[in-house]
């Protein structure tokens, strides 16, 4: 038995073919491509399937896809791609028995209980409580989800919280909002807390300091990692100012989301951009903005905050969810005892069942 799993983001799409070998799932094929290479999710999946043998394609029983957009009734409109997809239509077009579309943050949350402690960098320590947990992911876009530990597994509440109105907290941030609103009208937090958002903040600070972005050099790659590098090397005052501003806005946003969810179980910061930014998050810009909640500042100081440094948490999460649901479905069909939904799965090349 084989399953197709994927993490379909606004910048990159990652696909794997998993094969069941008794109590393990082995990765048979893997592909990482830029999303912009394709004009639809169907085209991306078709390209991957064409790389497989006829027998491999015939043995795929399910496809589980983490998608960067709100999912409703098996349909998704991608937020940062001009794509729309429907599970039923993908099944027909690609001759796949079953296709499941899952919000990418919901899928990522399923990896968090299994991430090794060494891949969780503490930003703020606090008591480990059993309350709700908050996931904030910063990459091409800004994603938010809330998850709870329950008997037999976890429960995840997906959201589109990254698109709420940006609320400036200083004169500098208000001027930045004013600048962005001229071009976008509505300025959401995602307009700032994303790869493109970091570039907007950097350009704003270059204008304030009367300097050219990247000293006038034209870039052909994603500029966000370079901004982080220039700030880390202290070679660019505008990059330093942009990172400080970004950290303050992220701290305020994460604090707001933590209050809304009452995330006493902890806040988890993930995403490709945050893996580059986490060294900056321990400074006062992020922490003070997170704490600055008036009469509830004392509560904010007790909430644990972790930076997730796992390379592919989205793929890990969708794989765990797919295997768990596949196992539960098999047990229901055979009438056997249903396995616990938090069944241990070994990360890496093999996903091991208990």
Automatic annotation (TrEMBL):
Q: Which GO terms describe its molecular function?
A: ATP binding; D-glucose binding; glucokinase activity
Listed A to Z, the keywords are: Kinase, Transferase
Name the Gene Ontology biological process terms.
Answer: glycolytic process
User: GO cellular component terms?
Assistant: cytosol
**E.C. numbers:** 2.7.1.2
The text of the family note is: Belongs to the bacterial glucokinase family.
The protein's name? Glucokinase
Species of the source = Natronospira elongata
């Amino acid at each position: 038995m084989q399953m197709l799993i994927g993490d379909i983001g606004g910048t990159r799409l990652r696909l794997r073919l998993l094969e069941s070998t008794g109590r393990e799932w082995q990765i048979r094929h893997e592909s990482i491509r830029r999303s912009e290479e394709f004009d639809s999710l169907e085209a991306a999946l078709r390209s991957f399937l064409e790389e497989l043998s006829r027998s491999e394609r015939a043995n795929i029983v399910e496809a589980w896809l983490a998608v960067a957009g709100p999912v409703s009734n098996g349909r998704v409109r991608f937020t940062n791609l001009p794509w729309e997809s429907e599970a039923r239509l993908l099944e027909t077009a690609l001759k796949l028995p079953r296709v499941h579309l899952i919000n990418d943050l919901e899928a990522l949350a399923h990896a968090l209980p299994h991430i090794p402690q060494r891949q969780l960098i503490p930003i703020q320590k606090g008591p480990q409580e059993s309350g709700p947990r908050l996931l904030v992911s910063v990459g091409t876009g800004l994603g938010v989800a809330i998850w709870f530990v329950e008997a037999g597994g976890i429960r995840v509440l997906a959201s589109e919280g990254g698109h709420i109105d940006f609320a400036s907290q200083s004169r500098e941030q208000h001027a930045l909002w004013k600048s962005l609103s001229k071009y976008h009208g509505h300025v959401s937090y995602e307009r700032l807390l994303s790869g493109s958002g970091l570039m907007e903040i950097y350009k704003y600070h270059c204008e304030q300091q009367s300097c050219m972005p990247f000293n006038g050099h034209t870039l052909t790659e994603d500029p966000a990692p370079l901004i982080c590098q220039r700030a880390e090397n202290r070679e660019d005052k505008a990059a330093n100012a942009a990172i400080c501003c970004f950290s303050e806005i992220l701290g305020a946003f994460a604090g707001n989301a933590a209050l809304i969810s009452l995330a006493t179980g902890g806040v988890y910061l993930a995403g490709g951009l945050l893996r580059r930014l986490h060294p900056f998050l321990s400074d006062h810009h992020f922490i003070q903005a997170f704490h600055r909640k008036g009469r509830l500042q004392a509560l904010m100081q007790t909430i644990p905050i972790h930076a997730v440094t796992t390379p592919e948490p989205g793929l890990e999460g969708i794989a765990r969810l797919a295997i768990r649901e596949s196992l539960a479905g098999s047990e229901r069909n055979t009438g056997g005892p249903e396995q616990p939904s938090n069944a241990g799965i070994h990360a890496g090349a093999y996903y091991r069942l208990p």
